[in-house]
Amino acid sequence: MELRWIDVLRFATYSNPEPPRRVRQSAAAWARQLKPAEFRVLRQKETEPPYRNAYCRVYELGQYVCAGCGSLLFSSTAKYHAISGWPSFTQPCTKNAIRYAFDDSHGMQRVEALCSVCDGHLGHVFPDGPAPGGLRYCINSESLRLILP
Fold first, then answer.
1. Chain-wide mean pLDDT for the chain?
2. Model-wide pTM > 0.90
3. What are the residue numbers of the active site?
């Protein structure tokens, strides 16, 4: 099933699909497990600098997993060059890979994309992506790890 903007809004408004498992830890445990930059993005919802991040210009075949819990998030086949400064994807690997939440921070109205398993902040999703789904998942590299085949 290809997700569309209406699906994202419905999930953010009513209920996200259940993930296959949950990972919950204290902030101290996350701080010990993650690199400082990963912790700032995944747990404190910071944003890394545009264009100066690990996966902005990487197009190798592989799978992108959550840097926090290792859950599969995106396939490299869904990655495209959006000229946004961050890795951009058209679709998650599965309907329940991402949890959606409305984000009114920084004077903007956006939809936040979080790992559905560990609730780590990944980035945001926008309705200005390519056809057919029209979605652009703008994701921080620090929240991802690329697993090569």
1. 96
2. yes
3. 138
